[in-house]
Amino acid sequence: MDKDELVQRAKLAEQAERYDDMAAAMKQVTETGVELSNEERNLLSVAYKNVVGARRSSWRVISSIEQKTEGSERKQQMAREYREKVEKELREICYDVLVSESLASWPPGEGGWEVLGLAPVPCQCSPSPFFACSRLGLGVPDLQCFALRACDCV
Fold it and tell me: Residue limits of the 14-3-3 domain (predicted)?
């Protein structure tokens, strides 16, 4: 499928509110190696914003349930395991977008990283900065390893 068809598929997925499909199509667009237009960057941003937003909402609900669960050790364990599953999905989604070759080539200040709410921030485990999502508290030091970090807005 060529770039134009992938962009069209992403637009259709957006209209159908199928943001996972939209993100997958736009990820394929980034893998073509061609610089993204402003429209394509916006589509990528909308796709990942919605994919991540749904999981952030799930994470908040599950975390709240986990904190309120009393008594049964098994119920607490189930809530914890489910929260960890959602956290893993969040890490994988953010890792995908952070290591995208197209995103890595976006210069700061030109609507690339900033469009997605990403910025270079100091890293605790490395002298070089890493890109982090300010909304999620997720980052990828040196674009190699990643971890979920505490964030007020999660």
Answer: 3-152
Please indicate, yes or no, if residue 59 is contained in any of the structural domains: yes
CA dist 116 → 24, 45, 68, 80, 82 (Å): 16, 5, 33, 29, 26
Return d(Cα 63, Cα 47) in angstroms, integer. 24
Q: State the DSSP string of 58-75.
A: HHHHHHHHHHH--S-HHH
Question: Residue 63 sits in which domain range?
Answer: 3-106
**Residue 13 located in a structural domain:** yes
Higher pLDDT, 127 or 99: 99
| Structural domain contains residue 153 | no
What is the reported pTM? 0.67
What sign does the CA torsion over 82, 97, 40, 38 have? Answer: positive
Inform me whether the pLDDT recorded for 49 exceeds 50: yes
Tens digits of per-residue pLDDT, 29-39? Answer: 988 878 888 99
CATH number at residue 87: 1.20.190.20
Count of other CB atoms within 10 angstroms of residue 86? 19
The predicted structure's pLDDT at residue 124: 52
